[in-house]
Amino acid sequence: AELTTTIGGFHFNNTIMNGAGVWCYDRKELSAVDTSAAATFVTKTATLAPRAGNPKPRMAATDLGSINSMGLPNKGLDYYLQVVEEFHQANPEKPYFLSTTGTSPDDFGKIFTKIAASNFSGLVELNLSCPNVVGKPQIAYDFAAVERILTQVTGIYHGPLGVKLPPYFDLVHFQQIADVLNQFPLTFVNTINSVGNGLVIQDETAAIAPKGGLGGIGGGYIKPMALANVRVLRQLLKPEINIIGTGGVETGRDVFELILCGADMVGVATQLGKEGPKVFARLTEELTAIMDAKGYKRLSDFRGKLQVPE
Ligand code: RRO
């Protein structure tokens, strides 16, 4: 079976990559994903200035997934622009993703002016869904804010652009975010980020320190929400917007299901954190075995073809 895929006009030799935030903090981590079986990498979400993030402990893995309140620790936009350019020079045929976000309204103009002035030639993933910056809401739960930001950003930056979304839980909200996103020339949507503000308790103590123990939930806990968000957004977004499906991938079967819901690419975060970059070879083998058993030769043989009982 053949696992190639495209996002916008960009070609990838596999359909599995990291989800932003895991194994992508610096050159060394990105290099490990780059040399793995992954299709490509996305960087840690970059802000204009470097950030230390929230106090530790700020991430915990559990049997069923993970909780984190990292608080956007990152080395700053200039660092990631520089590093992605180095990978691009070494590997001109391989497209890379740069994740970024603002922490105040006037950041977005500055960030995209900077990217537009750089020689960045990959895809930008604008993170509108970080749940963990103290005092800041998840942007994409405010539909007017999304419209404002995308109006500004698409006026400045004309390269391939996507957005990272939080999970939605109500069909009215799916329609509202799709109506906003469909107004813009977006290349892709990545859904879902972690399920915000969950709580994990170990013995009698919260597993992480920031925000009174609250943090974004990832891993197996959130797979049904990821599947539903990919499925419904595929039905509501205009067809030229590709979808990266992220959330709850532990096995090749999970990758298969996200593609069945319409994903063009699949992101892996919590399980990558638990297993390291060798996860990509395992997931690739498991997905290939499922496709071979079913007689599927390429992803388009089953992408978006979920059946629902009558
Ligand atoms: O750094 C984080 O706390 C973080 C971010 Br920016 C995000 O988008 N999602 C997440 O679960 N954690």
Instruction: Enumerate the strands of the largest sheet in spatial order, edge to edge or round the barrel.
Output: 3-15-14-9-8-7-6
Count of all domains:
1
**Helix-strand string:** EEEHEEHEHEHEHEEEEEHEHEHH
Tell me the distance between the termini. Answer: 31 Å
CATH homologous superfamily?
Aldolase class I
What would the average pLDDT be, to the nearest integer?
A: 98
How large a portion of the residues is in β-strands, by DSSP E?
15-25%
- How many helices? The count is 9
CATH class: Alpha Beta
What about the largest sheet?
A: 7 strands, parallel
Description:
With 310 residues, the chain is of the alpha/beta class. It has a single domain (5-56, 72-195, 218-301), classed as Alpha-Beta Barrel (TIM Barrel). The chain is built from 9 helices and 15 strands. Helix 3 packs parallel to helix 4, helix 4 (143-156) packs parallel to helix 5 (171-181) and helix 7 (252-260) packs across helix 9 (279-294). The model has no long low-confidence stretch (mean pLDDT 98). The structure holds ligand RRO. Residues 21, 45, 68-72, 127, 129-132, 193-194, 216 line the site of ligand RRO.
